[in-house]
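Record pair follows.
FIRST:
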Amino acid sequence: ARQDIRYTKEILDDQKKQLVQQNAESKKQTFESTFFQLVRLFSDITNQIDLQRTENGATIITKGKDVFPVFLKRLKKTYKPLATALYGGEDFHNAYEEFYGKHNSELGHYFRTVYNLVKFIDKSDIPQKKFYSNIVRAQLSDAEVALLFHNGLSKHGREKFKPLMERYGLLKNVNNKDMLDAADRKS
C-alpha cells in the first residue's frame, strides 16, 4: 500500500509539473499572439500615415515609413537653438510643441501605439522581455527612433514613455546627426 501511495504521489507530482509547464506555455502563446497582433497593428498604422504637399502645382504624397524623414526635417526646421533666442529663437520644448501641434493628427496615434506596445511587454510576466522589445526596435527606422527620442524629451513622452524607451533600449540606434541640439545627446 505504501508503494502504491508513493507511486501515486510520483505520478501526481509529474502531472503537476506538466500542468505548470503547459500553463506557462499557454501564457507564452497567448502573449505572443497578442504581441504579434499589436506589431501588425503598429505596422498598419505606420503604413497608413501620409503627408501631402504641393510642389510646382503637383500634389506629392509621401506614405508609410517615408514620412518620418520628412517629419524629422520639419522638426529641425521648427527648432531654433537657444543661442538665437534674442533674435526670435525658441527652446526645444516650444519648438516641439509647435511641431507636435501641426502633426498631432498623424503622429499622436503612432506614438500612442508604440507606447502601448512597449507597455504591453513591460507589464507582462514573460521572462524574455528584452527579446520582444528588440523585435519592436527592429521595426523602427532611424528617423522614427529620432522622433521617439525627441518625443521622449517632450512633455508628451517624458513621464511615461521615456523610462520604457530607456529600459528596453529603443533609442540604442539614435543617430547624433538626427538630434536637434548637442545638449540633447546628454539627455
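SECOND:
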Amino acid sequence: MLILLDSSFTLIKPSQPVGLVYAQYLEASTNLNVDPATMEAAFRSSFARAPSPTYSFENSGHDTEVSWWRSLVLQIFSETLQKSSLSAPAPELEACFDSLFNHYAQPTSWALYPETVSFLKAASEIGTLAVVSNFDDRLAPILNGLGIGSSFKDVITSADALARKPDQKIFDFALKRLNFRAEETCFCGDSYEADYLGASSAGIRSFHLKRPDNTLIDFLEFCR
C-alpha cells in the first residue's frame, strides 16, 4: 500500500500565527505597525482567491512557485496597508517578501501536530509513505529539520510535478514516480477541494482531515 500525505495543516503547521509573523516582518522592513488580525484576514482572502501558478518548462517549478508567492504576498501587503491608510516603498516590500520566504524555509517556523510522529511510525508498518504537497524546494529540508523526513520514500511538490492540487496531474506524477497504482493508494489532506476531491479524481481513496473532528489516527484506521 502507498500512503500519500499532504504537508501543511496535515503533518505540520506554522509555529506562529501567519498574520503575526507577516506583521512583524513588515514592521521590521518598513517601520509600519499593522494589526496582525487585519494581516491574517488579508492573507486568508488573498490566498483563497489566488489562481494556481502558470508553469512552463522554460522556468523551474521552484522559481514559478517563488514568483507566485511574491505576487501573493505583495498583494496581501497592499491590501493590509490600504485598509490601514498606510503606504511603503516597493523596494522595502520586496525585501520584506524575501525575508518572509526565507523565514518559512526554516524548520523552526513550523511545528508538528501532536500525533504526527506516532502516526508516521504506525503507518510505516502498513505501507510506503510519501508526501504530495503544493509547495516548493523548501519542503524536504523543513521535514528533515523537524525530524520526520526519513519517514518518507519521497517528498513530491507542485514544483516537481509542475501542477498543483486539485489538478490530477500531480497525483498521476506521484503514482508514476513511486511506481504504485491508484487502487493501491490512500491519501490524506486538510483541504476538501485540493486534497479530497483532487485525489478522488485520480482514483485514489481519499480521507478528508478535519481537525478537531478527526486526526491522523483516524486516517490510520482508514488505511487499515
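COMMENT: The longest strand covers residues 128-133.
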